[in-house]
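Sharing a chain and its predicted structure for anyone who wants a worked example. Both blocks are below, sequence first, tokens second.
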Amino acid sequence: QVQLVESGGGLVQAGGSLKLSCAASGSIFSINVMGWYRQAPGKQRELVAAITSGGSTSGPADSVKGRFTISMDNAKKTVYLQMNSLKPEDTAVYYCAAATTPAGLGSGFGSWGQGTQVTVSS
């Protein structure tokens, strides 16, 4: 079993930056892909970006391209999301996810963190 703990969320003004971190524990040997999702009030959860243990990335989503960067410390199974030039529409709960395969990321076969709130004020 894998446990994920996010940190780094908070309140920031538009144009500012935040860096989210997500540390995995437990059966981390099973993790080959990690990613970040977000869910804004009244909206569906969406994939922001994902990265494999080999460094291949998926995303980031068009809405954050050029502003957000995902990275991973594979030895520690810790994934990061550097968020720059934040906009009010980036306000959401950001969730970390991990899985053995890319198909499993974000599904019932993967693991989820508890989420961290990011609020961007205008």
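Comments welcome. DSSP finds no helices and eleven strands in the chain.
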